[in-house]
Every structure is written in C-alpha cells, then in structure tokens.
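User: Predict structure, ligand nicotinamide-adenine-dinucleotide.
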Amino acid sequence: MAIASIPLNQPDTAKRPRRVTVLGSTGSVGCSTLDLIRRSVPGTYEIVALTAQTNAVALAAQAIEFGAKVAVIGDEAKRAELDNALSGTGIEVAAGREALLEAATRPADWVMAAIVGTAGLAPTLNAVRQGAHVALANKECLVSAGHVFMGEVEASGATLLPVDSEHNAIFQVLEKDRLDCVDKIILTASGGPFLQKSIEDMRWATPAQAVAHPQWSMGAKISVDSATLMNKGLEVIEAYHLFPVGLDKLDVVIHPQSIIHSMVAYKDGSVLAQLGSPDMRTPIGYALAWPNRMETPSEKLDLAKIGQLTFETPDLERFPALGLAREALRLGGIAPAVINAANEIAVAEFLAGNMGFLEISTCVSEVLEAEMAGGKTSAPQNLEEVLELDKIARQKAREWVQSHTF
Ligand code: NAD
Ligand code: MG
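Assistant: Predicted complex:
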C-alpha cells in the first residue's frame, strides 16, 4: 500500500527550517495552511514557493509576510500587478502555467497541494516526483488520475499525507498493515446546505444558497460539490485509491454535525473514529506535523455542549451525484476522469448562473453515458492521456450546457 509502506523520512528540522511550498496559497486550504505557519515558532518553516491563479494582491501580501523565495501567478495577465507589488522585496516573481509547474519542482520538504480541480494534477505530480512529503487537499488528482497518480507516488518514494478531513481521519485510525481486518471504511458527510430540502426546492437553488455550507468554510467549487453530494462521491473515489480495501467496503453515512470525520470498522466489531471541530486546520496541522502533532487554533471539542451526534442514510434520489460517482468507480476506465471533468464544468456553469442546480448531476450523468458509449473507455495510462481525456470531457460538458435551455 503506497501510502503506508513509506518510511518515516522526516527531514532533520532540528538543523534547518522545514522548506514548505503551498500550491494554491490564496485559497481556503492555502490560507489555513499559512495560518498554522504564521502561528508557529519563527524559524520552524521556510517558504519556498507560493502560487495562485488570479489574486495577485493576496499572493503578494502572503509572499511578503512569509518571506517566500518565489511567488507564482498562474494568470499571465496579472504578472505586472504582482511585479509591482513585490518590486524591491527581493522575492522572485514568475507567471504562467510553465512557471507554476516549475515552482512545484523546487526542492521542498513539504508541499501543500491545494489548487482546486484538475489544474492541480500536473503541479502536484511534480511535487510528488521530487519525493517530498505531499499534503494532498486536491482530491480531483486522485479522481481523474488515481492509478497514474498512485503509481508516481510509489515510484518516487514521496509521502502522501491526506488532508481532506475524511481521509485524514481514516489515515489517523486505519491500521494500514491490517487491511484484511477492515470490515468497512465509513466516510461521513454533513449532507450540505440542502440536506432537508426537497427536489423542488433544489431546482431553484441559487449559487449563493449552494455555497452557504452549514459546517465548513471552503472554496466555491467544493462547496457546490458538497451541496450536490458529488463531493462525497469524489471522496469515495479518493478513498478507493488511498486505502485499497475495495469499493464494496467503502460506505457513506450522513452526519450533519461534522464532528466525526470518518470511521474504520474492523471485523471484530470495533469501530475507530476521529473526531474534532469542523476546522480544516486540524487535518492540515496533522499533515504539517506528521508523524508528530502540533497545537492548532481549532476549537477544542466539547461533546457535552454538542449534545447529540446523529446519522442517516444518504438519499440517492435527491442526491444522485453520490450514486453517479460510485457507478463511475465501478465502471472504471475513463469514467472517474470523465465525471470529474464534466462536474468541474457543470459547477462552473452553475456558479456563473448559466444552469440550474439539479442540472449539474444531469449534465455529468449524460456526458458519462455518452463517453462510455463511444470510443476508447480504457483507463488513461499517463498524465498526457489523463489531460487529453479531461479536455474532451470538459468540451462535451460545455456542449451539453450550450445545447440545453434553462
Ligand atoms: P479555493 O477555490 O479556495 O482555492 C483554490 C486555490 O487554487 C487558489 O489559491 C487559486 O488561486 C488556485 N487556483 C485555482 N485555479 C487554478 C488554476 N487553474 N491553476 C492554478 N491555480 C489555481 O479552493 P479550496 O477550497 O481551498 O480547495 C482546494 C482543494 O482542496 C480542492 O481540490 C478541494 O476539493 C480540496 N479540499 C478543500 C477543503 C476546504 O475546506 N476548502 C477541504 C477538503 C478538500
Ligand atoms: Mg472532505
């Protein structure tokens, strides 16, 4: 098992600061990561590269505050803005996709992969190839390129540290050398903002309502995915690659309080769970300090105050995206990459006001069906094949949106 068989090759931080790169530093996970570093003892970490796509102002402020060696903006049109903001600071400025890919190859001990979407795949792979400790927030990497990605992890000797709260929880409680003793891995899902809504209510849901998550504060894409439950579907695929117990042993239970972040049930009837306040700084801190633990500002859990933890079975009729993702995993081949790409487009179109909330799943489902019906359906074998497949599925999803009136 790639994730467990890697030795605890912690860098010797007693002698020098730990070199850290944050890919997607201006996003929700990126900012939480830097917040933990901000609170750490000065000299513990040294920031190599910070990257963002468009927000040059926020990136420049971070680069100055943390003394980054290089700040990379993906959108080349924002280069001048970044140049101006960093002039005279001695911080190297770079722009464009190639620069982002290059930044991910710069020697670092620990890289946070927090770019959203398939855009994060190639940079994360570059970090993996340098054998770093890679804290993986970007689940789309594993959904679109699971086998290719895990193959690279195995080959490079990189250490993959799951940051997605559910996978981080499983990572904490799974006896990785005893997978034969696992009865089930149970991922918890908050159920998102529409847990109590009818299909008719969801039909008219606005982007603002969809991103208003009851428990977690996150970027827009993952928030919409949480509202459709596609997020949990993507997480089942993510878990499938990280913890190879097989799809039949991966369950999902709705747990609206988001206190239990996931569980592992063993064949003797024991169930081990990881609990904590819904604050990403706990799983990020776990990955940052691993195999040690660090203080985080996450609110300490007061179970008596919370009072009740409740659970229910997911409703696949109101939330078809969860079933769709499981089906894609069962189909294998191109299917997971296709649903991932189609979903990214569908969510973006929904956020742009171009289609309704329920159509997100319909679009993904119909693109998947069409792609599985025609042409090559065998799994991509390398990064280029994944990206080509991703491009085609995105195009098909765009065409789907254009050919429907809402
Ligand atoms: P976000 O939208 O807040 O931030 C995304 C970051 O990626 C930003 O820094 C942005 O500049 C950068 N980015 C966006 N498009 C890019 C592109 N094309 N090229 C390069 N950089 C680009 O997202 P987030 O909520 O921080 O989520 C990041 C990843 O972590 C996602 O894959 C998400 O599924 C995963 N994740 C997030 C959370 C959470 O609590 N936010 C929890 C679990 C997993
Ligand atoms: Mg999650």
